[in-house]
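Below is a typical protein record.
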Amino acid sequence: MRQYSADLTPPWKKPQPAPEVPADPGLVVEEPGTGFCGAVTGCEAGTVTLEDRFGKRRVFPLEPRGFLLEGRVVTLVKPSPGPVRPSRTASGSVAVPGARARVARAGRIYVEGRHDAELVEKVWGDDLRIEGVVVEYLEGVDDLPSIVSAFAPGPDARLGVLVDHLVPGSKEWRIAQAVTSEHALVVGHPYIDVWEAVKPASVGIAAWPRVPRGQDWKTGVCRALGWPENTGAAWQHILGRVRSYKDLEPELLGRVEELIDFVTAPADDG
């Protein structure tokens, strides 16, 4: 016995497949059921958002044959993702996906204290690992001449040093002048402590307080801001508010970048 299809609609009366059109932002279409005409502003979760010329927005489902494009029936589909924008490290450099840490160079960067080292690691850590640069801390600059002498900087083992509160005529400045050479670079920022190199707004304060001479600066800051006089806890709070280079003052950013460039520069064979 012959089987008949339940669908008796003649083929010429069946709706033909409509062309699929990506719902790219700015595409102007009309939803025929409501007559709403507008430009695509978003497409997600099976819906498309249109905005008309008066700024009114409406959300419609992405259904087959659901829209008119220049009078033609079309099926809007979610657009394919565009090129992935390169992500960036905390320092603002283009991230290198899957990059492995380079074997440590002979060259080094020294900073004055543990807080300085932790801040440099948080912002420049990814860059330093790719370049194979190790950061160590001095706990002050008084021993810098003996450290530089023992390190014996050379063309293949450059030494960069970051010093707090490096101002002309200061003790730190005189030490820096004494150890600077073709293969040893000492730079500094003007801040009393690296805490000050974090922008006040990032920490949630109006400004870093002025601490009278003779007082421990970090303790004085905690006292002036009404924080518990626990400098370790205060630093963890400050460091936790640093997300990227944008949270740091330019005077520190430029100096660290200068040291990284110096230490990683190729040796001059000439």
Observations:
- The mean pLDDT is 86.
